[in-house]
Structures are given as C-alpha cells and as structure tokens.
C-alpha cells in the first residue's frame, strides 16, 4: 500500500463490478482494469475483486490494490473477516479431470512460464478425482450463473493442495463447455452481451473460499475460438492465448489472507470500518457487500454510465449515495472526499443553510 499523508490514516476505497451481469465496463475481459488503475492513484488502498483485475494473459501490477475473491469480500464487508496483506503466497494449481491432455499441458506450461518469467511461487498441482461437470445457466434478466455436478471433488482437491503442498491460495482451472456457435457467446465477443462464463466461475471460487478461508480464483479451460474480424476490443484479451491462467496466478500471488473472526485478527489487519468509499454501478446495488457497507459511514458512489442487466438502484433500497455519470467523475469525488472537501463546494452554486424543523 502507498504511504498515507502525514497526520492521516490510509484512505481506503472498494471498487465493485459484480460478475455476470453484463456491466458495460467490467463485464468483459478485464476491461475495468484501466478504471482500477486510475482510482488507485487517488487512494492509499484499493480493494477490488478478480472480475475487475483479470484480463486473461493481460494484467497490471497495482501496488496498493488488494485482490479479494467475492465471497471473501462479502464476509469482509459484513465485518466477519479482516484482510491481511501479504508479500507472497504459495499458489496451488487445481485442474479439472475433464480437461483434455493437450489442453492440460497448455495450462501447465502457462504455470511454469509464470514461475520462470514472473518469479511466482507455485506448489505441485493436483487433478480432481472426478470431472467437475460445469453447467452454465442464464437468468431471465440476462445475468449468468452456473453449477458444478461434483463440488466434493473440487473441495477434496483443494484440501490436498493445502494439507500436502502447503498452498496459501488456490487457482482453479475447470473445463467449461465449448459453445462456439451460441448467440450469447457471439454477442459477448462483439461487446454487446453478458459474459456466459462469469456466474459459474464465481460459484467455483466461492465454494473454496467458504470452506477453507484462503484466496481462490478461477480460470476456465476452453478450446481456442476461430478468428473474428468483428471482435470487440473489450473482449479481445480472451483471444490472445490458449489459457486465461496468467492473470489469476499473478493476482493470487499477492492476494491478502483472511482473518476469520475476532480471535483471528491482528492489529495490522484491514477491517470494514476502515473503508472510506465504495464505487459501484448505479443499477447493481443488491449485492451483499453493498448492503453491508451501506450500514457504515462509507461514502457510496453510484456510477450511471456503467449500465448492467440489473435494475437495483440506491433509491429503491433507501441507500444514500452520490450519483455520478462516469468513473472519471467518481475519481474527482474520491479526491474531494479524501481531502475533506464537500463535492457541492466544487460547483458554481451552493444552497444556503436551512433551519431544521423541531
């Protein structure tokens, strides 16, 4: 984390772009990463999640950003868990038995490349004792979700990595269905649809984090898609290689550990009452972390231009939030809030104080 200004405590912000809801920014292949990079310049600590920072082969080291899986982030926001920054994690690689031999080799080579080129610390890998059986689903709203047929196999493999290899974080690679001709996939590749994989990915990582309380993120195993000259730039990061694994390994290598409960809390841990600001799409206010932080003194910023398939506004939930049109404007609000300057004071007009009714 960056050093806070003298005489002040670190200014901490949470950036949320929920997974699988077709967010105009952050609903594609790491396309919210520029937003995270910019916000990180005006805060001491930025807490965000893999959906924001993962860009397949592409990633960017942000020294003051914490890579926190969604379930862990929900627990943190509720005050149940704390975040414990770390210099390095031993990352265990968990591979779905359903991955074909050649595709498995591609992922193992990507992991070795991360060790040799980036200097990451990985344990030996484990293959699940049964295919995970990933199934994809789409809700009426257009949001995506999914299930796995063999969650026990996933959890047994994760336990092996923790107990036998000393893994401190787990990267899961599950074989996802190839559906190259689907309308949903084509819309996503053209920058118009919802990521068909994101919802199921979240289910996988949630299971591991909930059971073992260590960082986890997921990379889908898929066969390469045919070239598409109309490909959207926002989806292009997923087309540049054979795996989506590198960004996950980089993120997990520095992901904070979790302090689970008051008995497992250290003085240097970060807790929910230290969060100064939350930035979230204006139509995506129904998530657990948002509802929890809305009960604190956190300044909430709703970004209108980041449209989603959801329709849950702060007004509907009685949440007080500053509405802005863009992330550029949100960055200005963050800078003002950190400086202790009222955003209203930056406009050309300012209403006179009014008497309160007795």
Question: Topology of this protein?
Answer:
Blueprint: E1 12-15, H1 33-40, E2 45-48, H2 50-53, E3 65-67, H3 70-77, E4 81-84, E5 91-95, H4 101-118, E6 126-127, E7 134-138, E8 144-148, H5 151-165, E9 169-175, H6 183-189, H7 198-212, E10 216-221, H8 245-253, E11 257-260, E12 277-281, H9 288-293, E13 299-303, H10 314-317, E14 322-324, H11 327-339
Parallel strand pairs: 1-2, 1-12, 2-3, 5-6, 5-9, 9-10, 12-13, 13-14
Antiparallel strand pairs: 4-11, 7-8
Key traits:
358 residues, alpha/beta, Rossmann fold, 6-stranded parallel β-sheet, 14 strands, globular
What does this protein structure show overall?
This protein has 358 residues and is an alpha/beta fold. The protein has two domains: 12-85 and 259-343, 3-Layer(aba) Sandwich (Rossmann fold), CATH 3.40.50; 91-253, no CATH class. It is 30% helix and 17% strand. The chain contains eleven helices and 14 strands. It has helices at 33-40, 50-53, 70-77, 101-118, 151-165, 183-189, 198-212, 245-253, 288-293, 314-317, 327-339; strands spanning 12-15, 45-48, 65-67, 81-84, 91-95, 126-127, 134-138, 144-148, 169-175, 216-221, 257-260, 277-281, 299-303, 322-324. Strands 3-2-1-12-13-14 form a six-stranded parallel sheet. A four-stranded parallel sheet has the order 6-5-9-10, sandwiched between helices. Strand 5 (91-95), helix 4 and strand 6 form a beta-alpha-beta unit. Helix 5 (151-165) packs across helix 7 (198-212). The longest helix is centred in the N-terminal third of the chain and has 18 residues, at 101-118. The chain is globular, with a radius of gyration of 21 Å.
């Amino acid at each position: 984390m960056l050093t806070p200004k003298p005489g002040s405590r670190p200014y901490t912000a949470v950036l949320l772009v929920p997974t699988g809801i077709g967010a105009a920014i952050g609903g594609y292949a790491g396309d919210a990463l520029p937003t995270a990079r910019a916000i990180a310049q005006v805060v001491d600590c930025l807490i965000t999640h893999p959906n924001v920072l993962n860009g397949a082969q592409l990633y960017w080291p942000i020294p003051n950003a914490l890579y926190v899986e969604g379930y862990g982030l929900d627990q943190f926001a509720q005050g149940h868990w704390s975040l414990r920054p770390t210099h390095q994690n031993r990352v265990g690689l968990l591979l779905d038995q359903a991955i074909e031999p050649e595709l498995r080799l591609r992922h193992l080579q990507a992991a070795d490349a991360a060790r040799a080129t980036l200097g990451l610390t990985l344990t030996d890998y484990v293959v699940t004792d049964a295919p995970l059986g990933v199934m994809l689903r789409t809700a009426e709203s257009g949001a995506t979700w999914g299930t796995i047929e063999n969650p026990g196999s996933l959890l047994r493999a994760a336990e092996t990595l923790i107990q036998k290899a000393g893994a401190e974080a787990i990267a899961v690679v599950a074989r996802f269905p190839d559906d190259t001709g689907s309308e949903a996939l084509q819309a996503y590749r053209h920058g118009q649809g919802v990521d068909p994989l994101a919802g199921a990915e979240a289910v996988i990582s949630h299971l591991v984090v909930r059971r073992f309380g260590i960082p986890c993120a997921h990379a889908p195993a898929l066969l390469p898609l045919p070239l598409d000259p109309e490909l959207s730039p926002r989806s292009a990061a997923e087309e540049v290689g054979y795996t989506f694994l590198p960004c996950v390994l980089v993120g997990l290598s520095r992901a904070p550990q979790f302090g689970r409960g008051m008995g497992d809390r250290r003085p240097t841990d970060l807790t929910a009452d230290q969060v100064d600001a939350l930035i979230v799409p204006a139509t995506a206010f129904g998530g657990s972390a948002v509802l929890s932080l809305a009960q604190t003194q956190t300044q909430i910023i709703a970004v209108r231009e980041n449209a989603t398939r959801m329709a849950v506004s702060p007004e509907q939930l009685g949440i007080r939030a500053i509405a802005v049109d863009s992330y550029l404007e949100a960055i200005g609000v963050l800078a003002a809030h950190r400086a202790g300057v009222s955003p209203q004071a930056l406009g050309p007009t300012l209403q006179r104080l009014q008497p309160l009714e007795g």
